[in-house]
What does this fold into?
Amino acid sequence: MTVPSGGPAGGALAEAAPPVDAGPTEADWSAAVAAVRDLPPEGRVLLICHVNPDGDALGSMLGFGLGLRRLGVRRLQATFPGPPEVPEPFRGLPGLDLLVPATEAYPDPDLVVCFDAASGSRLGELADRLETAGAALALDHHASNTRFGRINLVDPHAAATSVVVEGLLARLGVALDAGIAECLYVALSTDTGSFRFEATTPAVHELAARLLATGIRPGDISRRIFDTRPFGAVRLFGEVLGRARLEPAAAAGHGLVWTYATQDDLARHDQRPYVLEALIDSVRCTAEADVSCVVKQTPAGDWAVSMRSKGAVDVSRVAVALGGGGHRFAAGFTGSGTADEVVDRIRAELDGALTAVARH
Ligand SMILES: [Mn+2]
It folds into this structure.
């Protein structure tokens, strides 16, 4: 059953239905707890996070996996679609021993739990587990989430999926330990830009405080996750940033800055695609543009686009219009054609995505 979006006024059902952007209801939490508690003895659990996993996807998944292990779940796998390559910055995460290649994931687990995916398509070739599993639970915080799980814990107000994970672990009676806390801290600091973004609420800092109280070392973790990259990546960034273009008239004068990186760029500097994830943070510094974009060529020849906004433009509207998703300040999609054609499409959508309460 789906919750009507908005819905007509009047009628008991319409009045009882929560607004779509409300967080999980108590019934949702209870159903999620029951899905874990009702696992058969020796039940198989498959954890899946989204393709090209970032810190929130991996950290949320592995933190929850370590929590399930504490509860005595023994037949437990964690995975993500595509090649089973964990980006270098995350290779020190606790719980990595739970990871299996997508090709080895249980075909029909008793329970599947998905992390940080706004839609089933973000699970790639593993999306079929939503049908074949005994129960399907989705934990997420994207406003554009399609409620693709059979049980959905989606909180668009949560700064990271790890906030939802911590809420479920608490309801399952799992106390935080240093391993779980490190995973959740990586997730939380990734999605808040190291506690710099608007989503950094008092609740975020309260959760960070509980995580740090387990004894994890934030300096070591941040250096490893955010401040370490191969020299080849430093040179690659120099080249890609050198070709950035500023378009002050775009987005009705709020400005657009963008650049692109090709597979050839990666090959020339002997770098893996994940190193480009951090590129947007250098591009979005541009004072003269509200919107920033990095257009990254995929091995298949498409373009994976990362977009950021400082507030005048809702980039999730641009992303959704072009087949992707995300948040108001951070969103993305995959496009085909040339990089210039992809940017043409973005430019055309930008004017329609100006927010009603633009601050600039
Ligand atoms: Mn996230």
Summary: The chain has 13 helices and eleven strands. Residues 55-70 form the longest helix (16 residues).
